[in-house]
Amino acid sequence: MSAKLMHAVQYKSYGGGPSGLKHVEIPIPSLKKDEVLLKTEAASLNPSDFKIQKGLVRPFIPRKLPHTPVTDVAGEIVEVGQGVKKFKVGDKVVALLSFGNGGGLAEYAVASERLTVARPPEVSAAEGAGLPIAGLTALQALTQAANIKLDGTGELKNILVTAASGGVGHYAVQLAKLGNNHVTATCGARNIDLVKSLGADEVLDYKTPEGAALKSPSGRKYDAVIHCATGTPWSSFEPNLSAEGKVIDITIGPSALLTLVLNTLTLSKKQLVPLLMNPKAENLEYLVKLVKEGKLKTVIDSKHALAKVEDAWGKSIDGHAIGKIIVEP
Ligand SMILES: NC(=O)c1ccc[n+]([C@@H]2O[C@H](COP(=O)([O-])OP(=O)(O)OC[C@H]3O[C@@H](n4cnc5c(N)ncnc54)[C@H](OP(=O)(O)O)[C@@H]3O)[C@@H](O)[C@H]2O)c1
Question: Which of 8, 141, 275, 277 is the most buried if burial means most Cβ atoms within 10 Å?
Answer without folding.
Answer: 141
